[in-house]
Amino acid sequence: MIFWNWKPDILVLFMLLIIRYSEERDRTRLPLLGLSPASCLIDQRNLTAGVLPAIHLALQHLYRHSWILKNYELQISFHDTQCDNAKGLKAFYDAIKYGPNHLMVFGGVCATVTSIIAESLKGWNLVQLSFAATTPELADKKKYPYFFRTVPSDNAVNPAILKLLKYYQWKRVGTLTQDVQRFSEVRVE
User: Fold this and answer.
1) Residue 69's pLDDT is what?
2) Are 36 and 78 in contact (CB under 8 A)?
3) Domains annotated on the chain, with CATH
4) Could you tell me how many helices (H) and strands (E) the chain has, helices first?
5) Is the N or the C terminus of the chain less surrounded, counting Cβ atoms within 10 Å?
């Protein structure tokens, strides 16, 4: 037999791989769709580049502690939206069309892409969870009932700013804003 010529540590490793493969094969896979800008910079930085290692670390933690998800395995497939509405929608629709059937959408960094995809979720009964979309527009639950976020809306900052102004008794304040949300809605009439 071939196995007798192998070193004991290689045989043990081989057996562990077989056991691990059979355990993974028995798990139910839960596909998640990741949509985020992987190849463009937002405010001179790439938010996705900082988030991806954290996601992989969390997945490793889940696999190491199999009692958390028991017989389930999360599978995340990321698609680059490039902060472009057309490319974001194409990535979303291609993922829906070519499968697998996703459990949810994870991501959404750029306000325009996130809002247009969040508005499209109703038809597929999909939930979207964003880690970076702070635009107040997405707080409208009538328009975006399937959208959730892990960061507060930009409007949530206003009470803190008011308390700061009152604390220092500032009488005159100036603010600078930039509205980058152009062509975020498509209307057919």
Assistant:
1) 78
2) yes
3) 3-167 (3.40.50.2300)
4) 5, 5
5) C
